[in-house]
Amino acid sequence: MASPTSASLAERFRDRLPLGPETPIVTLGEGSTPLLPAPRLSARLDLDVWLKWEGANPTGSFKDRGMTIALSKAVEEGRQAVVCASTGNTAASAAAYAARAGLPALVLQPAGAVALGKLAQARALGARVLEVRGSFDQALAAARQLTERGTHVLVNSLNPYRLEGQKTAAFEILEELGEPPAVLALPYGGGGNTRAYAMGFEEADAGLPRLVAVESSRRAETAASAIRISSPAHASEVEQALARTGGTVVQVSDEALLEAWRALAQEEGIFCEPASAAPVAGLAQAQLAKGTRVVCVITGHGLKDPEAVERLTPPPLTVDPDPDAIAAVA
Hints:
Elements: H1 9-12, E1 35-37, H2 39-45, E2 48-53, H3 63-76, E3 82-85, H4 89-101, E4 105-110, H5 116-124, E5 128-132, H6 136-147, E6 153-154, H7 160-166, H8 168-177, E7 183-187, H9 192-204, E8 210-216, H10 235-245, E9 248-252, H11 254-268, H12 278-283, E10 293-298, H13 306-312, H14 323-329
Parallel strand pairs: 2-10, 3-4, 3-6, 4-5, 7-8, 7-10, 8-9
Antiparallel strand pairs: 1-2
């Protein structure tokens, strides 16, 4: 397997990205994330499971792949500010890369629907954070309307440069495995990442994995806030990508999703945010043949949503500083 490199994503794949020789690269060292075998999950599911660990990106999510390209192009084009609607990960990434580029960032978030870790990142990084009285879809509509005034550039995945950056994860999987996996499973929120992976595999001309896009059966109210999007912006493109690859959309309950979240942490040592566990939860329903090689895209770090740990794991016990007392409860 290929060894990781310290070069930025844009430097590694510049010839496959919409970057000219004079494009200023706004980078925090994103990309080159680990592709990890998952032996315990593989044994339990009777599959060959691998985990593309995107929580290793600079702000802790896959969004950084696209944001480096979106901000690089924004600077090249002389843009003065960026705006996004976000359930959290886009906000953190936009704030970080805008700060790196020296541009102000405006974040519109649905009121009460963003995990604390993500909100903390965006605030600490200097973004102007506004809570919108409404859903993510309403916040996105407002952001799009604002960009029509010419004051801001939208850096949600509707920005085509975002998808250009995100497609590079497919290139990395091909580098590391030497061939496409039989199946690529990933969370399905807005659908931009599913579309980006399809772009990447198709451009590499190495064959397409079957895409399995996993969503919560409670899309609008799911506990997995990162995929709490009732109307996916890329739904039609996802449908087309699934048709081209023989893929499917799988719905999972929040209970199954959170059980997969625990399994990733306690069986494989991967602490991710709940939404990131969706592809693992979906494997049980995807009707895959024994031994099928599957790459699950684990999109965001668990520190994005520390409240999930409070809700879903037992609290620490208090003991005296005595070995017998400790052994009695250990």
